[in-house]
Amino acid sequence: MCEQSLRKSGRESNRMRLYHSPMSIALACRLALTAADIGHEVVIVNSLSGETKQEPFLSINPLGEVPALDHDGAIVTQTVAILSFIADHGGQGWADPTPIERAKELSTMIVAAAEVQAAWKMINRPNRYAPSDTAAAEVGAQARIRLDAAYAELERRIALRDTGKALGILDYHAGVLALWKIMAPAGQGLSPTPHLDAVKDRLMNTPKLRQVIDEDIANYTAMVG
């Protein structure tokens, strides 16, 4: 693991440390911290080389997954939980602060995690879910069908939102999933998701968020060689 950078903010006296692998879903947390101008370190954990499944990272998150957020020694894991904490801590990030609207945004992020992210895991590592190479190929094919349906549901939910509001944690989460869809080979040929793509475009058109995304893509490209 290596410490990559420190984001500084005059409003933030206590440093946060985000454990992150480039172009993973942890990028959503990087974007949320950057948008809220919360001082933080980014510690790169190379998931492709297996660093997330080894010490010292397993001492931070025994599940061996990023993101993980260290705030004054308290560790928070799971993307939706971290994003919610960042929004509450930074005082921004919820599109609407009312309880019902927050619950609706949480519902969409949970669906994204349980369906879109889960389908990507099956596509990227089908052998984990199958006893043979032949079975793994079938798992991959079925996972792609599931992935298309999951993106369609996320697209439906995003289309119902008010696009005139400021960017928030749901946008950072959904925007990363939109990036995966256009960057990964398995994303080619999936059903169109224009509203989801529009979220990604809003992130890319925000200079400080574009800088984070470009940096992450560069780090990922270097990591895969």
Task: Give a nutshell description of this structure.
The chain is α+β, with helices and mostly antiparallel strands and 225 residues long. The chain is built from eight helices and five strands; from the N terminus they run E-E-H-E-H-E-E-H-H-H-H-H-H.
N-to-C series of helices and strands = EEHEHEEHHHHHH
- Unreliable parts: 5-13
Q: What is the terminal-to-terminal distance?
A: 17 Å
Count of helical segments? 8
Radius of gyration of CA atoms, rounded to a whole number: 17 Å
Helix content: 40-55%
Averaged pLDDT: 93
List keywords for this structure.
225 residues, alpha+beta, five-stranded mixed β-sheet, 8 helices, 11% strand, globular
Task: Please tell me about this protein's structure.
The two termini are 17 Å apart. Mean pLDDT is 93; it is low at 5-13. The chain has eight helices and five strands; from the N terminus they run ββαβαββαααααα. Helix 1 packs across helix 6 (169-183) and helix 4 runs antiparallel to helix 5 (133-159). The protein is of the alpha+beta class. It has helices at 27-35, 57-60, 79-90, 99-124, 133-159, 169-183, 194-204, 207-224, and strands spanning 2-7, 16-20, 40-44, 68-71, 74-77. Strands 1-3-2-4-5 form a five-stranded mixed sheet, covered by helices on one side. Strand 2, helix 1 and strand 3 form a beta-alpha-beta unit. Helix content is 54%, strand content 11%.
